[in-house]
Protein: Protein amalgam-like
Organism: Hirondellea gigas
Amino acid sequence: MATQWDLAQLLLTALLILQGSWLVRSYKTTDLDYDVEYVDEEPPYFLARSQTFTVEIGQSVIIPCDVENQGTHQLVIMRIDSSGKSHLVSAGGIKLVRTQRMKIERTRLFILKARRQDAGLYSCSFPTAEEVVLQHSLDVQYPPKINSSNSPIQHVAKGASVTR
């Protein structure tokens, strides 16, 4: 049975083919086969540098993947969680996660009302361009949870000592 990751990879491959991001295409004319190469004048590069974002739980954050010379290359954004597992967030500007708290606008990922599980590394890349990767880190801070075994209410007579 296909996993969510397998389906996402299949969708990404189909998207890249439909968008024409492959650099080489073959055409058949009569009995001759030939390849036509499409080479971008300049490879894409990111305008932002790797950053660490720290937000409190419930706050919003923008993960920038601003790029120059994108051409026909399709931007892919992935989240790598604390266990090292990768989660495909978007490909070619199409959001691939179900949560309504994440929005894609051009080359930016908006995370609204951040949760603990949003923390991790966010990777911006172009699968069709060599080594064009930008990685950001998101730290979501949350208050400690304190469990007390004592009753929260103590009744003390006036003038008596309070004990624990």
Summary: Residues 16-38 have pLDDT under 50 and may be disordered. The chain is about 10% helix and 35% strand. The domain at 42-141 is CATH 2.60.40.10 (Immunoglobulin-like). The CA atoms of residues 156 and 162 lie 7 Å apart.
